[in-house]
Design brief:
It is a single chain. The longest helix has 31 residues, at 107-137. The relative contact order is 0.07. The chain has helices at 12-24, 35-45, 61-71, 86-94, 107-137, 145-157, 174-183, 202-210, 227-230, 246-258, 284-289, 295-301, 318-333, 342-350, 356-370, 378-385, 387-391, 394-398, 404-422, 427-433, 438-448, and strands at residues 4-8, 28-32, 49-53, 77-81, 99-102, 164-167, 192-196, 211-212, 224-225, 235-239, 260-262, 269-271, 275-280, 304-307, 339-340, 375-376. The protein is built from 21 helices and 16 strands. It has four domains: 4-133, Response regulator (Rossmann fold); 145-309, P-loop containing nucleotide triphosphate hydrolases (Rossmann fold); 312-396, Helicase, Ruva Protein, domain 3 (Orthogonal Bundle), CATH 1.10.8; 401-448, Arc Repressor Mutant, subunit A (Orthogonal Bundle), CATH 1.10.10. Helices cover 51% and strands 14% of the residues. The strands form five sheets. It has a five-stranded parallel beta sheet with strand order 2-1-3-4-5, sandwiched between helices. Strands 7-10-13-6-14 form a five-stranded parallel beta sheet. Strands 8-9 form a two-stranded antiparallel ribbon. Strand 3 (49-53), helix 3 (61-71) and strand 4 (77-81) form a beta-alpha-beta unit. It is α/β, with parallel strands linked by helices and 455 residues long. It is extended.
């Protein structure tokens, strides 16, 4: 791709010489004589790099630089001047100029600056694409009441320093919630460090969290910082915190109370500034009752509780999730783009997904790999998902009803609950769309014991 370069200078000779040099080097060049024209040309043409003279008729180059950076904060601009001063160079840098060149212009200096500036731009673009990829990977997808309530709570809690305890079944996306809280917090530019407490042997968890000194135990061949120190200034995510040993729990409690950590085998405590977010698939109150989790640590961690709902409670999110995973997997793995037919989506929405989001993602990946055509029909879902999932579906559960009356009641309850969730529990709107008297809907809500979920 040919790089576009804009040259703005009120001296015709400078424009001609610089344009000739750049075109000879293979760049596409446009040259203008005023700052006003430079701003207009930038907005219309969007060059990869701009050379701006400081002194031009009308508004000067520094004012043009300011307006160009307003149009595009990532714009790469090199200022040139025949009367350069340190003050002017500092001002240009403060306004966002990449570099400042003095006249008479040196050909080698121009080309080196140009090459470095464009490489800098390439790195910025690559970082931006990487951030987009990471954010799409960790995006919370859904429009259901439960998900919108969760996102609203994340947005309220993230800017505060409060600790968060996230509960939910395996595969519901607890890590996504933790990352969202970190991303929206004042700590977002600092590390997000994750520790899976269930995956680390109990005899190693303390070393992993608090670090160790050389020779403190067999295998400690060098000093090593623990996760608390690595997360200093940022966020430490303790995943599956309910699986942490009692001795490690006691030390975590001490760190939270003192704001300092001592490595195993060390004698000096190091101050740490860490926001702790925890997650668990266990009932920690029951674990406390069984003396497997410290009550004092529980109250330290559970400042703001969040619950991630299982997939079966938000079936209306299935179409969005399938589309999201399809786009993500196609891009990441170079798979041929496919679309799911409405009946295929409907079939996927029938399943209970005991493995939650993780199972749905794996299933979409399997279908994208094995489906026979560009459009995925319900028959492919039946063939590739298998009977096991169907047995766990709501439809399968309804078929377990002993009598026809029991089946009708269960089906009506499931239908009304889904519709109320779909319309944020607006009873009047739900009744209108169902063509049902509002009083009848209230009676059925009472009869089936339907209640609105709270975030």
């Amino acid at each position: 791709m040919t790089r576009r370069i804009l040259v703005a200078d009120d001296e015709k000779g400078i424009r001609a010489a610089l344009g000739q040099l750049l075109e000879y080097e293979g760049y596409e060049v446009r040259a203008v004589g005023t700052a006003v024209d430079a701003i207009a040309e930038f907005e219309k043409w969007r060059p990869h790099l701009s050379f701006l003279d400081v002194k031009m008729g009308g508004i000067d180059g520094l004012e043009a630089l300011k307006k160009i950076r307003q149009l595009d904060p990532a714009a790469i601009v090199v200022m040139i001047s025949g009367h350069g001063t340190i003050q002017t160079a500092v001002e240009a840098t403060q306004l966002g100029a990449y570099d400042f060149l003095e006249k008479p212009l040196d050909t080698d200096r121009i080309l080196v600056t140009l090459r470095n500036a464009l490489q800098h731009g390439n790195l910025q673009e690559e970082n931006s694409r990487l951030r987009e990829t990471i954010e799409s990977r960790y995006e919370i997808v859904g429009k259901s009441f439960a998900i919108r309530s969760l996102i609203e709570k994340i947005e309220r809690v993230a800017p505060t320093p409060a600790r968060v305890l996230i509960s939910g079944e395996n595969g519901t996306g607890k890590e996504l919630v933790a990352r969202a809280v970190h991303r929206l917090s004042a700590r977002s530019a600092h590390p997000f460090i994750e520790v899976n407490c269930a995956a680390i042997p109990s005899e190693l968890i303390e070393s992993e969290l608090f670090g160790h000194m050389k020779g403190s135990f067999t295998g400690a061949i060098a000093d090593r910082a623990g996760k608390f120190e690595q997360a200093n200034g940022g966020t430490l995510f303790l995943d599956e915190v309910g699986d942490m040993s009692l001795s490690a729990q006691a030390k975590v409690l001490r760190v939270l109370e003192d704001g300092a950590v001592t490595r195993i085998g060390g004698s000096k405590a190091a101050a740490v500034d860490v926001r702790v977010i925890s997650a668990t698939n266990k009932n920690l109150e029951a674990e406390i009752h069984e003396n497997r989790f410290r009550e004092d640590l529980y109250y330290r961690l559970n400042v703001v509780p969040m619950t991630v709902p299982p997939r079966r409670e938000r079936r209306e999110d299935i179409p969005l999730l399938v589309a999201h995973f399809t786009a993500l997997l196609s891009k990441q793995q170079g798979m041929a783009p496919r679309t799911f037919t409405p009946d295929a989506i409907e079939r996927l929405a029938m399943y209970d997904w005991p493995g939650n989001v993780r199972e749905l993602r794996n299933t979409v990946e399997r279908i994208l790999i094995l489906a026979s055509g560009p459009r995925v029909p319900a028959a492919d879902v039946e063939r590739l998902v298998g009977q096991r999932a169907a047995e766990g579906s709501t439809f399968g559960s309804l078929l377990e009803s002993r009598t026809f009356e029991e089946f009708k009641d269960a089906a009506e309850r499931a239908f009304l609950l889904a519709k109320l969730r779909e319309h944020d529990w607006n009873v009047s709107e739900t009744a209108r769309l169902l063509d049902m008297p509002r009083s009848n809907l209230y009676k059925k809500i009472e009869r089936y014991g339907l209640t609105r979920e709270h975030a």
